[in-house]
Amino acid sequence: MRRMLIALTMVFLFSMMACGPSPAHTPTSSTISMPPPTGQADPDPTPEPEHRIYLPSILKGYTPHLEISCVNGPVQNYVNQDVVFEVTSGGEPVEGATVCFAGYERQTDEDGRAVFNIDMAGPFKARVEKPGYEDASTLLWVFPEGNEKFPIRAIRLHSEQVGTTIADYRMAGANCASIKVYYLYDEEGNIYPASPFPSGWTRIPRDVHQKFYEWQISEARRWGFEKIYLIAQPLEESIFASESPHSTVLSEEAKQNYLEQNQKEAIRLGEFAEEQNVDILDAFNPEVAFKENLFKTDADELSSEDILLYQKLLPELRERFSGDLAGKTAVGVQYFVKGQKLPKHDYSGFDYVTPPFSGLHGVLNTGSPSEWENAIHKYFEYTEQLRKKYGVKLMPVYVPGLQIHNEQLFNQFLRNGKFEDYEDVKVWLLNSILDEASKRNVDGAETYTLWYHSRRVEPHGPYGYKFPVWQSKRPLDTVANHFSHPWNKEGRETLRVLQHAALLTNSIASHNQELAGWLEDKIAEGLKAYNNGDYTLASSIANEILKKASGVNNPLGIVIDGNGKEWVNLDPIYYNASEQLPPLELLAGDSVPLGENEALITKNLKTGLWRF
Fold this sequence. Notes:
Number of strands: 20
Radius of gyration: 30 Å
């Protein structure tokens, strides 16, 4: 490789000294222009900037390029379904090209197409080659098949998405993105559009608020989510105060102001949801009523004014929004622990009734996991009665979580359930709720955001901060077990190991021919075992290669030569199919000031917070 580069450099320098630059071009330091195809006249070029140079066509003959694309696009391919690639050159189909994908090879037909059907999921690279052409490749995802027991499989996307990616949720079987639209309300009951990013909870201008959610919805769609579920979420501004955070208790006058403004915001959100073709909308979150009802045990005392207002608002919302309207139940799991009398609310007019299983609807009032599990069962029975009575669809939401108002009670809950920490509880809750839901006539389920990297998670409530965990991937994997069908993880892992073994073999071949021969035979043996479905043998062979290569000095043959051809056959470990960043400039205006460091981080984000 280095000899080739030296030779090319000498030819290049010689041609420049002998011929000088082309009359229509002026010298440059680095950029090379591709010559026209053989047999075609050199087009009359427009003058280039002074920093460009023309490389004469005598240096290299023209080689036609192959182009490969996935017919379904990069994010609409599924396990056990056909993945179709189309190969062209100059816009024309190429027959007889070899497409390599997921460890298998296919030849393109007369239409330039090659079809694969695999039982593995994840990000893949497909490569195509044919003698006389330059190779090409494309990246794509293959996602697991969804579990039909849950027609809607929603996982919450957060505006401050961190510690996970949208791809993780698609890999877990999700087909619906649930997005909360946040507001803050003050002690006078005034409501303001809000965002938690980038500098913590703050009010933001309405146009910024709208553009931001436009971006979130479009991002979810770019990732292939079939449905969007939008949820209004007003929060107390006082609990995020930098000094003396506290809960807000609205006066009667402030509450009336809050309810009036909430109605206006609901109508605005309905119009916005229609513009964005949202599928399901919960436009009026009765947050104040839920708070007021938190510790009431008599159904006749339960506040329901804002719940009734939402129902009265439905006809006007219907005029502005053509999708499905959802409304939360007025009660939570805790009401079924002690057999409390339930309020009689009318849910007619809604398309979905969505029983929440967390926050104010999951206030722990027992130290017994078995009592809580029995309450979950009764909660589902209650909501099924609502489904039959009002002809609504049923979708449990906010799964799972607990709100802790009694530290000793939660410690007792941990001991009785033999849970080590809150994550153990969360996994148990996920299984309990989703198992129960799968036995019922539900139309879907929605879970909370399931971060698993660099994010501390804790229960809701005043004592939640005493039980934090650095959440692992267990909760998300638990959801995947319910939301998706199993796929061939063993085969996928075997393929990765074989690809790295092949990389070592190709690299060692450049400086150890004797060893390379043995390695190539082993790779062929391993690929044969892989294609026959003998993953144990294939893995064993790949590991034998890796072990052998570990005794070689510089086994990867890494040389800084600008050529990475040895690596082209590796599948990616991640692929950002969207490649879109959020409109961060919208959040960096005068109304939402950023510090110097925050602005620098925001401009340079490639992965992490926003690189979904």
